[in-house]
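Practice problem 4.
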């Protein structure tokens, strides 16, 4: 057994870290809005942090395992990481600013592990306070292509307008960097939606792997190839969408490019 993957299998064992995953699930059963009922069993104050540290470490290992062709191990690691994060988010503190982000991470892990129903349920019932990129991801998991296209266009237009007004050049580097990443991400997803609506499987395959070098959403997930005709026929082909996103690509914000 490869020592590297053997260590991952050790971390996936139910007894690892004092049955950490089981303790997270047990707490999740009884708590409401991040609070344990009076008189109920007490859990370690560090349980949430331990679960999240464990989950993100496991996600790194899952990505490496998948790249190395260890598909079964990767699937189990993605699933366990998703369950660990879900035990923190579901019925957790509704005011936690990380809630939306963590819900997206868990949903993505479920989708990559091919538990698409759990991904759908995760993102539909727990996501809040989402960034534009996270909202796009939520809509893709929910298969709301009309909403996804609308949000992508609105945000792309907003960023382009900011650039034309020169407001991006006056912002802090971190803000400009975030706007750049959001612009590229939304442009990539917009292209993906265009390919889906047009029924162009060749371009869909390219977008699915790595559109604009960003790995759009990492996974088309719930949209299996045999479902694409249903999506295509649900809305008329909108060829002008392709022209719109192409125009956005040609006028990539100058303030972003030069910073």
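Answer key:
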């Amino acid at each position: 057994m490869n020592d590297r993957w053997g260590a991952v299998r050790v971390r996936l064992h139910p007894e690892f870290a004092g049955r950490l995953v089981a303790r997270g699930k047990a707490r999740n059963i009884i708590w409401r809005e991040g609070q344990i009922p009076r008189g109920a069993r007490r859990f370690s104050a560090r349980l949430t942090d331990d679960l999240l540290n464990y989950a993100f470490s496991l996600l790194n290992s899952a990505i490496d395992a998948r790249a190395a062709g260890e598909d079964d191990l990767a699937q189990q690691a993605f699933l366990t990481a998703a369950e660990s994060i879900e035990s923190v988010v579901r019925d957790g503190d509704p005011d936690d600013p990380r809630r939306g982000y963590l819900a997206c991470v868990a949903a993505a892990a479920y989708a990559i592990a091919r538990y698409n129903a759990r991904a759908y349920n995760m993102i539909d019932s727990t996501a809040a306070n989402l960034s534009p990129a996270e909202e796009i991801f939520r809509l893709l998991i929910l298969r709301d292509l009309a909403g996804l296209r609308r949000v992508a266009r609105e945000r792309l237009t907003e960023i382009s307008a900011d650039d034309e007004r020169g407001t991006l050049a006056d912002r802090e580097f971190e803000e400009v960097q975030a706007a750049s990443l959001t612009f590229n991400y939304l442009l990539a997803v917009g292209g993906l939606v265009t390919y889906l609506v047009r029924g162009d499987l060749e371009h869909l395959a390219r977008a699915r792997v790595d559109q604009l070098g960003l790995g759009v959403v990492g996974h088309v997930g719930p949209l299996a190839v045999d479902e694409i005709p249903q999506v295509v026929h649900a809305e008329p082909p909108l060829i002008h969408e392709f022209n719109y996103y192409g125009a956005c690509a040609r006028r990539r914000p100058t303030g972003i490019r030069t910073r």
